[in-house]
Amino acid sequence: MALFRRILSLGKRAGMDREIDAELREHIAMCIDDNMAQGMNRAAAERDARSRFGNPTVMRERVLAEDMALGLESLWHDVRGALRVFVKNPGFAFVVVATLALGIGANTALFELLDAVLLQSLPVKNPQELAQVRVVDRSKARGDFSSGYPIVTNPIWENLRENHPGFSGIAAWRDVDFSRDSGGDARFANGLYVSGDFFSVLGIQPIAGRLFTAEDDRPGCGLPGAVISYGFWQQEFGGRPALGQKLRLNNKSVEVIGITPANFFGVAVGSDFDVAVPICAQPYLETTNRLQSSTKWWLSVIGRLDPKSSVDQVAAHLKTMSPGIFASTIRADYPPESVKDYLAMKLTAEPSAAGVSMLRETYSDSLRFLLGIAGLVLLITCANLASLMLARTAARERDMAVRLAIGAGRWRLIRLVLGESLLLAFAGALAGMALAQVLSRALVAYLNISLDFKLDWRIFAFLLGISLLTCLLFGLAAALRASRTPPVTAMKAGGHAMTASRGRLGFRGVLVVSQVALSLVLLFSALLFTRSLRNLMVDDPGFQANGVLIARLNFTRLQIPADQRATFQRRLLDRIRSLPGVDAAANTNIVPLGGSGWGNAVWVAGQESTHRQDSNFSGVSSDYFKTLRIPVIAGRDFTGREMAQSPRDAIVNVAFAKKLGLGANPIGARFWREATPSRPAELNEIVGLVKDTKYRGIRRPAEPIAYLALAQNPDAENTMQVLIRSRLPMDAQKQAIRLALHDISSGISFDFNGLQDQIQQSLLPERLLATLSGFFGALAVILAMTGLYGVMSYTVTERTTEIGIRMALGAQRTNITAMILGKAITLLTVGLMLGAGLSLAAASAAGALLFGLKPHDPATLAGAALLLAAVTLVASLVPSMRAANVNPIDSLRTD
Amino acid sequence: MAKNDLQGALDLLILKTLSHLDSMHGYGIVMHIRRVTDELLIVEEGSLYPALHRMEQNKWIRASWAVTEYGRKAKWYTLTRAGREQLASREKNWEQVAKGVDAILRFA
Fold this sequence. Notes:
A: alpha+beta, twelve-stranded mixed beta sheet, elongated
């Protein structure tokens, strides 16, 4: 209530001033009356009254001070005062606000990203009721896994659709690229295959037209219509009426029947959908039918729990239902050797309110670690600002002392300083918020993901929280420190205290030491991540990616019969090989380190199939090893003239030979490859041995790979991936290929990517960690530098008198420099030791994020410490030199 | 401690004065204390008005503008119920402090 009253009285200061003035005036008048009544003349009476009374303005201030002991108004008054101080002294204010903005901005941007990736719920009705269904352990499953999301086959999905206890509704979806063009450079739309109930289960209402129902999703539906997203509507139709308009997807025409709301991006966080079509349209849009296969794992299942069920209950249900589901969904195409594993698989459910997220798996560890780092930067910022404020307050100590002496309360002074820091924190928070918007958008652009950032209350609370925390941390420390000095000491000591200096450096020393320690932690982790990234980038994958171009071709539109596709592919490849500048080119169905894989079980011919081992496979044409410069150790390359004879030719790598126990020279050895949906078990004969290369990801060690000849593959696709090693610059080579393909047919669509670029792209999480931690590390070092510089300059100013006396008594300049520098070195050493301990503790948390080095790498730690020591010593050298230039006469005269 | 006690003493003097005089303005309070203590205690205006203001904020006294017997406008202060309670407790406290100080002084 009192606070409320004070807020109300904010504007009444003038009135109160008047009232107090009147009261005091009357008092003096009465005093004069009395004096005159006792026989004084008027002038004498007035003089006496005034001398007894003192300065009326001071008096009024003191009366007001009593009244305002807790007043908001005087706080505002202080803030206004602070504003005036800062306008007069812009350098200080600028440094503080910029430091704060960086600290707060970086934190907020990372928090926003983390929030969008990890915390935010799907923009759908009651997202907390959503759960996704997944196979507990997919590693025993066989077939094509064409997604990183939890997936099942269409038969399993259809089974779940009919029978889903605990769910009030259940839906399936799959993200896919639809080609938007008929030929030439490829353009894609982010597509979604969705089950008929998808939108109704999520509770999405169309903003125009209608969404799919179960009626739309019937076997053999063709292409009943397309639902487009708000973003796609804006981009493609400019927001004009789109219902009934035609789109071309994978060269098929489809009519737009509905538009989803602006905030709906699908269920996969970080990706955005453009066009959704029913699952039943898959066979119509693609060449292979995935609907009847139990080896095509491609659909993600998400369901809405009914009000009576929990996720755990549903998971338990699914577990008991699993044997029945898997028994009834297995098809003849499933490899017979693996049927037992298939039947033993289990389904489970897990909460999915935040949607499914590849980003989460890819980035959550890095982002959490980065948020920790950003938090440390904020702490350093606080310590730095506390130093700055202290230095300022110290410079104004005399002013403070005078205020204390004329009766200002301690609280009043604390508030004065707090008013300043509040103002700074506010300005810093605003600047930080602006910076955060820029930073988070830059981050999203850098990661090339699509995220919906909202400045929601959580981020706002976070921002407000950290600003207030910063304000309190750096303001209060300074304020308490300032008000603790007894006025007499401060007055006596003036600006150049000798006695108080040690105690003062104590607290500032603590700030510097913690700053140095935290900076070391940051610098250390920055170096760790940078070295880790470097290790990944220079890591030898076993092949040379530089100078290799990947051309992805799609000639579906040419409608080439399956038995002639292999010939057509060879023609395209020969054409590319004949282009000027091309050293070698090869066709493959698996681009190494591209993220996709092909695994089958193998066993040595003559052994039982129970001895089977898992191996990776890759279908390649001749010249594959030449193109990637993979050394052939023994035997030969494919000739390109392989026929469909048996046994088929295979080239294996060293890891494969080792895993199957084939010895150093496996040429001529034979192995079985398990049956696949399209082919029975096949016997292969090893005709070549090549060096190990990495297959799926650069972080994984080299794995066994068997290369099979694409020429022997009876089901050639309508697509091909050609690896081209070229002497020409990439762009020139692309242009040449473009023209050559156009020559053959304008119906071929294609896109290009550099193999090296693609590998780099796969290192994005590591790059993010290295870049951002490097940025924060640099920031921390700069802060530590300014912090130490500030403290040392202040110490020198403070000890000018002492230094003067020492010099007058015969101390040499070098002694003085050494004395000041010694102090800096002490602080630095303590900080570095403390920081080393902290670093080692923090590093173990980073262990899993590192590649090719131990988290406790002593060389890195030593490097970080040396670097930090060097820059901070430079920073403290300047004030030390200045100390040596103190003129003893001047310094003694100052007071 | 010393500061609080001195401040407490001033509060006590003002409260007691007001309880004697029912209602009085600042100048009157100063004069009353002077007269009664035979000029032993002279309350300075510099301390009086902040104290009065503080006591008013604490609702121990109430103020209103009125005209003095000599025709001057002045702010008159009156004790409130809270003020009387405050006075009682402070009087008791003071007696104890005085007794204690006295005992120390008389210790032989």
